Each structure stands twice: as C-alpha cells, then as structure tokens.
C-alpha cells in the first residue's frame, strides 16, 4: 500500500507554491514569508526524510504486526467505537511522542530539524528529520490493544496531513470553540517560537485538549520569533540533519564521569552539570 503522505506530496508542493505567490501579491510586513534558500532546505529535508523513512517504516510495520499477532485483543475495524478510540489514542500517542522529543536531548537532536527554520510557512511543515527511529514505541500500545496495523498507519497519515496546514502565518485565529478543541495555526505558531514564554508549549497533533489538560498550553500573544534559542546559521541539509548529534558528541567527549555523559544525552536540551546552560 502506498502511504497516504506520498500520495499527498504533489498537493503539498502545489499549496507551498500558492502560499508563496500569496506573499508576492498580498504581502504582509509582519509575516516572515518565504526565502528561496530556506524553502530549498525544507524541501530537501522533506525528500530525504521520505527516502530514509522507507526501510524504517517497513521495520515499524513488522513490529506492529507482530504485536497485533500475539495480543489476544481485537478491535473490529467495522466499529465506529474502534475508530473513535484510534483517533484519541493516536493523538495522545503523538502528544507523548512530541513532548518526549522536546524534553530528551537525544530525541530533540532528531526533532530539532523541524524547528530550525527562521521562517514559518507551509514548506516548514516538510522540514522533517532524517533520523526517525525513536517513533516506534509510542504507537506500539495501539497494536497491543488489538487495533489493526493498517488503521494505525492510516490515522498517523491523517494526523500528519492535518498538521501540514498548521504551518502558516496566513491564517489568523479561528472561531473560539475551534481554537479551544483543535490545534490551529495560531497554537502551532506558538510551538515554533523561540520566545521564552513559548518554549515547550502546544505539543498537540490534531487536538489541543491534551495541552490544556496537562498544562503545556500557551495562547498566542507576543509576536512569535521562529527558530531555535541558538540558531545554526546554515542551509546545508547535512548540517541541519545532524548538527545536534554532533553537539551531543562534543559535550559527551568533554564530560567528566558517567553521570554527566548520560545527562548530556538523556537530559533535556540545554542540560549541563552545574545548571548554567
């Protein structure tokens, strides 16, 4: 089965082009818009992630299929309750996955790619990691409760499709009930902000209610500054993909003792032995 995301690539590229044209004919001085080198890097990262992701997706399918085979539980695909459970469980799994990738440095080293652009547009959604290996455990419980593997993969694709449309400054806040329940461009702009008030906020995929319940929600207020707290200053896809892994390696080599080495790898981004970072 061809992944839904692969089928959607022509649509993604068309919408990126249309959004770029909208800035040409309807410019907004308060929005960052597009920059050719930045967009080229985002598209390169997206293409590379699809190539790297193919064998890993195969591994994921095998593991989930094995888990589904050994569990005695079965959730029928014909039941609407199964689809509702899948929607909620997938979205919660994404929240946990996303939060972990912001709070554990070795996982952040993979996810930081997506936050490395100083721009915020639809091409930013395509700036994806080339090291997605840590994603597998977060959705494994869905297979263990008896949800068919094809349903899990389909819902993951639906979530990613939805999140593509969050990466834009062209959409302001939406109707308040929508903003309260769903993740929106406004909420996700906050997530991409390097402003101190916006760090580690709004992890949700489709729903924003997990952030509200678990106290990681922050509404959009002050102007968002996109990028990292320490930007990398490069458009080189290889450096974008692996710069944080290299930084971890440097810190581990300089560290004194096992505790400090483990802290640099598994502590939160910015961890240091004396707390100075």
Short description:
The protein is mostly helical and 277 residues long. Helices cover 57% and strands 0% of the residues.
Account of the 3D structure:
The chain has 277 residues and is an all-alpha fold. The chain has one domain. It has helices at 4-25, 36-70, 80-103, 105-111, 136-144, 149-164, 176-181, 185-191, 209-213, 237-254, 258-266. The longest helix is centred in the N-terminal third of the chain and has 35 residues, at 36-70. Its main location: membrane. It is a multi-pass membrane protein. It is found in: Endomembrane system.
How helix-rich are the residues, as a percent range?
Answer: 55-70%
**SSE-based structural type:** mainly alpha
Number of helices: 11
Strand content: under 5%
Low-confidence stretches: none
The N- to C-terminal Cα distance equals 46 Å
Strand tally: 0
Number of domains: 1
Please describe the biggest sheet, giving its number of strands, its sense, and whether it closes into a barrel. none
Order of helices and strands: HHHHHHHHHHH
Mean pLDDT over the residues: 96
Shape summary: globular
How much is the radius of gyration in Å?
19 Å
Give the topology, please.
Layout: H1 4-25, H2 36-70, H3 80-103, H4 105-111, H5 136-144, H6 149-164, H7 176-181, H8 185-191, H9 209-213, H10 237-254, H11 258-266
Helix pairs in contact: 1-6, 2-5, 3-4, 3-6, 4-10, 10-11
Keywords:
277 residues; mainly alpha; 0% strand; globular; Sterol_desaturase/TMEM195; lipid metabolism; oxidoreductase
